[in-house]
Recover the amino acids of this structure.
């Protein structure tokens, strides 16, 4: 039999543990780490070295990801002196996380990102939350989004099924940005419709220079051909909450297959960022916010 005293003691311990767990998870939501990868993709040309910095899933929202924090992240990235900065979508908070805080105006978070510096440019794709936030965009199933307009006004190159040919020290490479795969809610059924056009995007490449692909959701990866040296993705938040390395919830039809990190399949390379912000609840545990640095060389 459990006595009343034992029951009170047990409840008290559980409450204290819960507060400690929550405080730790909340503290982890505000920390930022740098995760570094060094890759030599098959066929990468000798002499071409690139440093890419990837930022994903800001979910700008006070107080979790306010302008001051974004400005700090921007300063940290600029100090890393990347050749190119890649922004992988979900700039806005989303309706669930907004319940716990206040959205940051588009001009403010985009203005902060506009201070990013890289000789080969700052390039972005949109994420699902950037499409979902505007009811009119959802109703007409297309058009410009407020997030996309804000990025362009801040001088950031926005890609939507487009490619650009860049050059470093006389050596070219291609950077492609895929349209979002979860752009629109289906009106009469569960699931999403995308604006992604992988064949059309890759058809814009006109020579054999290396090709890098920016996507928001990693689920496209099984369809990405060997021609692509590296695919970079966000969206999953690394699970956002991982218990003993296990992520109970992953927003992917493949489950944990592409939840986080460097994935190699059939010689093809994918790096999934754990992202920076929060979705659903303002808590991260076992998956700290991260800036990703990728070095590419032969």
């Amino acid at each position: 039999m459990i006595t009343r005293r034992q029951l009170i003691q047990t409840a008290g311990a559980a409450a204290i543990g819960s507060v400690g767990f929550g405080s730790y998870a909340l503290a982890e939501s505000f920390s930022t780490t740098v995760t570094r990868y060094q890759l030599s993709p098959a066929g990468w040309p000798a002499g071409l070295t690139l440093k890419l910095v990837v930022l994903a899933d800001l979910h700008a929202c006070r107080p979790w990801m306010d302008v001051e924090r974004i400005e700090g992240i921007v300063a940290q990235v600029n100090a890393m002196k990347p050749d190119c900065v890649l922004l992988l979508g979900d700039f806005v908070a989303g309706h669930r996380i907004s319940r716990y805080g206040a959205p940051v105006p588009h001009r403010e978070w985009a203005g902060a990102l506009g201070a990013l510096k890289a000789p080969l440019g700052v390039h972005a794709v949109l994420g699902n939350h950037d499409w979902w936030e505007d009811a009119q965009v959802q109703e007409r199933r297309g058009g410009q989004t407020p997030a996309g307009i804000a990025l362009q006004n801040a001088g950031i190159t926005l890609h939507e099924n487009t490619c650009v040919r860049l050059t470093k020290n006389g050596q070219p490479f291609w950077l492609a940005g895929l349209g979002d795969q979860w752009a629109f809610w289906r009106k009469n059924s569960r699931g999403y419709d995308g604006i992604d056009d992988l064949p059309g995007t890759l058809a814009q490449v006109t020579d054999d220079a290396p090709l890098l692909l920016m996507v928001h959701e990693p689920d496209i990866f099984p369809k990405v051909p060997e021609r692509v040296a590296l695919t970079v993705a966000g969206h999953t938040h690394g699970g956002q909450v991982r218990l003993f390395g296990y992520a109970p919830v992953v927003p992917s039809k493949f489950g944990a297959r592409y939840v986080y990190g460097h994935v190699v399949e059939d010689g093809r390379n994918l790096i999934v960022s754990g992202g920076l912000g929060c979705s659903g609840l303002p808590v991260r545990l076992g998956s700290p916010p991260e800036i990703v640095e990728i070095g590419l060389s032969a």
User: Anything to note?
Assistant: Residues 4-30 form the longest helix (27 residues). Confidence is low (pLDDT under 50) at residues 1-24.
